[in-house]
UniProtKB/TrEMBL annotation:
Chain spans, region Disordered: 414-436
Species, as recorded: Paenibacillus illinoisensis
Bilayer-crossing regions: 12-35, 41-59, 71-93, 99-116, 128-146, 158-175, 204-225, 276-297
UniProtKB keywords: Membrane, Transmembrane, Transmembrane helix
Protein name (Swiss-Prot/TrEMBL): Protein-glutamine gamma-glutamyltransferase-like C-terminal domain-containing protein
Domain of life, source organism: Bacteria
């Protein structure tokens, strides 16, 4: 038996780690405060988050009802965030906007820390990880090209580290979730290895495409700069030059000689509108080209992997069908459209017991789908049985439960165990099927 104290400490450690990692994911957002504060202010905000959220996790673990009741959580977050932020602000001498930002951020950090049982594997955590990756990419790349974001160049190394941690955590989150989906829920924890390997191949392809796209963006932007200039010149030609019949006036002489015809003047600075339009055109062109590269690259890599898989498999195994639930997918998902006969011919069950079990399972799934139950081809038999039982009425749920248990158990034995079904269970399944 496991020790309850050890389980409680491990839960506390996982919650504390999940909460502290959120601070790493949101660091690209904290760097925006450098526009009105000193250069080290985002790091102070990160320290405030670590202190307040960590104390909030400890308090929520000690007092269980503190995070479940919203009004207690709000009051506790406000008090804890203000106290910790005031201490940090007093030590570092924050004033004005820095003090207000520190107080608001401290209250928000304490509210996150007081959340009930934060988990490393959740949809919210996955969104924070994606936010960290995207924010680090935008802050790291556009700080070199977009003039208003030049102050973010100071945090280039930290942004890269935050993006790397977010990317690795996102990959681990997706990896663990797909591993759980690949494990059959029958107590034996048998892994569908081929399905899991296929998911790993897709994840590796997307990772390589993302890394290649990030690395190619600066070169792509430099290559698209002449195209941007030509397109902007064409847009200016469509709009047309501004014509003013009156000569510009000056306070001294009344006429600005630099605006008279035939006078050479220095080139004026481009306006903010044209600068923003140029960056918009550049970003749209780069996004379009990267999308085309990703789309064509994914198709090419999939074809190469299929060709390589066919070359590595033995000759006698090349004719084997796919490894997903063939009894559902090939019969129901992508059926070969036969010619419609004049008279409807009833399909008879096969004589062999193993094939008859496959027939019963396929017909059982087909009937459930006709009744409106949504069953995917990649779902396990036990998952399909749970969905079917969920849509059944309470009157016949007991009989359906008994039949589904026998059918799924026998199907798993025949399909994956490669064994003959139990004669007593087989006769009972036949009798139950005939009475349906």
């Amino acid at each position: 038996m496991s020790d309850p104290t050890w389980e409680s400490k491990s839960r506390l450690g996982m919650s504390l780690l999940a909460t502290l990692l959120i601070g790493v994911y949101v660091f690209p957002l904290l760097t925006l405060t450098s526009f009105y504060a000193n250069g080290h202010f985002p790091y102070f905000l990160l320290i405030i988050y670590a202190l307040t959220s960590g104390i909030g996790v400890l308090l929520g673990h000690r007092f269980q009802g503190l995070g479940t009741r919203m009004w207690l959580r709000l009051v506790g977050a406000l008090l804890l965030g203000v106290v910790v932020s005031l201490i940090v602000a007093w030590i570092n001498g924050f004033t004005g906007p820095e003090l207000i930002t520190a107080l608001l951020w401290g209250a928000l950090s304490a509210f996150v820390g007081l959340a009930p049982e934060p988990s490393l594997r959740s949809t919210l955590m996955w969104r924070w990880q994606v936010f960290g990756v995207v924010g680090s990419i935008i802050g790291g790349i556009f700080s070199r090209w977009f003039e208003p974001l030049f102050p973010l160049q100071t945090y280039g190394g930290t942004l890269y580290a935050a993006g790397f941690i977010s990317f690795v955590a996102c990959l681990l989150n997706v990896y663990s979730s797909q591993l759980d989906r690949a494990v059959l829920n029958d107590g034996k924890r048998k892994i569908v290895l081929r399905e899991f390997n296929r998911a790993n191949h897709q994840r590796l392809i997307w990772m390589l495409l993302i890394i290649a796209g990030i690395g190619a963006f600066p070169s792509l932007a430099a290559w698209l700069a002449p195209l941007r200039d030509r397109l902007l010149a064409w847009i200016r030609g469509l709009i047309g030059p501004s014509s003013d019949p009156q000569l510009p006036m000056t306070p001294d002489s009344g006429i600005d000689p630099s605006k008279l015809p035939g006078r050479v003047t220095e080139q004026s600075e481009p306006s903010v509108f044209w600068d923003m339009l140029g960056w918009f055109v550049l970003g749209a062109s780069a996004a379009l080209i990267l999308w085309l590269i990703f789309r064509l690259g994914r198709k090419t890599i999939n074809r190469l992997m299929d060709r390589l898989r066919g070359m590595m498999e033995p000759r006698e195994r090349r004719a084997e069908p796919r490894t997903e639930y063939i009894d559902i997918s090939e019969t129901l998902e992508t059926p070969v459209r036969p010619r419609k006969p004049w008279f409807r011919k009833k399909e008879t069950p096969p004589s062999q017991e193993a094939e008859r079990v496959r027939y019963y399972y396929r017909k059982w799934i087909d009937q459930a789908r006709q009744q409106g139950v949504e069953i995917e081809a990649a779902q396990t038999p036990l998952e399909a049985a749970e969905k079917i039982l969920h849509h059944k009425s309470s009157s016949d749920k007991q009989d359906t439960q008994r039949f589904s248990d026998m059918l799924t158990r026998t199907y798993n034995v025949v399909r994956y165990g490669k064994k003959a079904p139990n004669p007593s269970e087989m006769s009972e399944i036949d009798r139950n099927w005939k009475s349906r």
